């Protein structure tokens, strides 16, 4: 039994090491060339920042946590975010996870669109968010909490969890403001399984600001203006049968973002569960890189003069 | 399901309809037009603005700020020369989403003024 436990532990460590190696490799790959993104370092909350038109941002968001009664896991969402228009961003997510003493599996995909209906910048800027997700019950990426989501949903064996297939639609109302270099964002989330009732609800709120407002005028990596600090809070709000903040997960999570040279952005957030249904702690790491004007890659140079 | 499809269709149509609005360069509020650049005549602001320009503006408007001759306009132009500092800061903050220019309200205000100082220096 002890030998099994040691083997499981070793295997789990190998998987986590593998995840970190992938993150490092992505960082090195992305460091080869690139542009700077302007996104906030939030993991759950959306601000009204959209992708610049024609740009493609690739971002990984990795969660590491251990649910009560379950094994430690690492879950990664790879996001491909494209600026279709200045007011419209399209995004594809590919999700996977590795659970200690269990298996490493692909858990599904999501397709989302974010639209800014108002063309001017206002005190509060709304963004409409529409998503379709096709995931299995073994999906452990934390992109939002809705309904009565609980850490027990994350504790079962992958072989059992993946039998459950979820075809869900998600709508979000994103409200976001930039006030004196602070960004303050609120998201109202509603989600429904397309096969059955009920609608489930959730929220996410966040605030952040750069540690220094003005650019210093010299190239630097560790300058204060390259760092963004803030805090997120997110959780479930029950469903149409019981609209409540009880028996669901709630988290508070400080966030730190670091804009590295050549367009790489790192973010880190330790999340702390506030209820019995929440994970005690969840550690989150994000690596993002933006490819400039990918549409131009497919244009012949001679077309430029037309 | 039918109701969900209808909601999505309405939202997309609303987005496209609003995006068809005209350019707003001409509609800058007087109080924004009159705002002076607090970093004007500071050489370090120009150097800092050049870095911010390189991070966020260069990919469309190019290193020489002459655009691509098609959809991405030149920033060394009569329009920018004759605009007030407040006009340019307002335009950076608002963007022109219907015509492909993102809003840069997410940049700290100081950095937007640094970009204004840089754009002034290259006219």
Outline type of chain B:
globular
Biggest interface, and residues per chain?
A-B, 47 and 46 residues
The CATH topology of chain B is given as Cytochrome Bc1 Complex, Chain D, domain 2
Q: Helical percent range of chain B?
A: 55-70%
Strand content of chain B: under 5%
Envelope shape of chain A = globular
Secondary-structure element sequence of chain B? HHHHHHH
Beta content of chain A: over 45%
The overall average pLDDT of chain A, rounded, is 88
Query: For the record, what is the CATH homologous superfamily label of chain B?
Result: Cytochrome c-like domain
Q: Show unreliable segments of chain B.
A: 18-22
Helix share of residues of chain A?
Answer: 10-25%
Identify the CATH architecture of chain A: Beta Barrel
By CATH reckoning, the class of chain B would read Mainly Alpha
For the largest beta-sheet of chain A, the strand count, sense and barrel status come to: 12 strands, antiparallel, barrel
Structural class determined from secondary elements of chain B: mainly alpha
| Strands side by side in the biggest sheet of chain A | 1-2-3-4-5-6-7-8-9-10-11-12
Task: Describe what is shown at a glance.
The complex is a heterodimer of chains A (306) and B (123). Chain A is mainly β. Chain A has helices spanning 2-30, 158-161; strands at residues 56-65, 73-85, 88-99, 104-115, 125-136, 165-179, 182-193, 199-210, 227-239, 250-259, 264-273, 281-291.
């Amino acid at each position: 039994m002890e030998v099994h436990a040691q083997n499981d532990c070793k295997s789990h460590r190998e998987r986590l090491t593998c995840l970190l190696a992938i993150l490092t490799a992505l960082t090195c790959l992305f460091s080869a060339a690139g542009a700077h993104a302007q996104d906030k370092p939030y993991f759950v909350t959306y601000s009204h920042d959209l992708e610049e038109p024609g740009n493609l941002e690739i971002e990984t968001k990795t969660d590491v946590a251990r649910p009560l009664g379950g094994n430690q896991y690492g879950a990664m969402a790879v996001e491909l975010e494209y600026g279709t228009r200045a007011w419209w961003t399209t995004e594809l997510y590919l999700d996977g996870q590795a659970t200690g003493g269990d298996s490493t599996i692909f858990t599904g995909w999501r397709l989302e669109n974010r639209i800014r209906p108002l063309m001017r910048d206002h005190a509060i800027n709304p963004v409409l968010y529409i998503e379709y997700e096709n995931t299995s019950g073994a999906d452990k990426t934390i992109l939002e909490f809705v309904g009565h989501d609980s850490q027990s949903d994350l504790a079962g064996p992958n072989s059992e969890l993946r039998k459950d297939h979820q075809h869900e639609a998600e709508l979000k109302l994103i409200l976001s403001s930039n006030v004196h270099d602070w960004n303050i964002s609120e998201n109202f989330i509603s989600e429904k399984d397309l096969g059955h009732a009920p609608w489930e609800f959730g929220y996410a709120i966040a605030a952040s600001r750069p540690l220094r407002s003005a650019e210093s005028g010299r190239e630097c990596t560790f300058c204060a203006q390259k760092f963004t600090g803030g805090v997120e809070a997110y959780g479930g709000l029950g469903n149409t049968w019981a609209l409540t903040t009880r028996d669901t997960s709630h988290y508070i999570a400080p966030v730190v973002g670091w804009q590295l040279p050549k367009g790489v952005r790192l973010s880190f957030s330790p999340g702390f569960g506030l209820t019995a249904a929440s994970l005690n702690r969840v550690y989150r790491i994000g690596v993002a890189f933006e490819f400039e004007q990918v549409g131009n890659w497919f244009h012949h140079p001679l077309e430029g003069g037309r | 399901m039918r109701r969900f499809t209808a909601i999505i269709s309405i939202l997309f149509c609303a987005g496209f309809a609003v995006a068809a609005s005209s350019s707003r360069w001409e509609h800058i509020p007087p109080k924004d037009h009159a705002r002076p650049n607090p970093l004007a005549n500071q050489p370090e602001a120009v150097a800092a603005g050049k870095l911010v320009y390189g991070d966020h503006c260069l990919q469309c408007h190019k290193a020489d700020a002459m655009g691509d001759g098609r959809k991405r306009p030149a920033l060394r132009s009569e329009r920018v020369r004759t605009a007030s500092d407040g006009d340019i800061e307002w335009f950076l903050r608002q963007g022109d989403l219907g015509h492909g220019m993102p809003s840069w309200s997410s940049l700290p205000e100081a950095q937007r003024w640094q970009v204004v100082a840089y754009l002034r220096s290259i006219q």
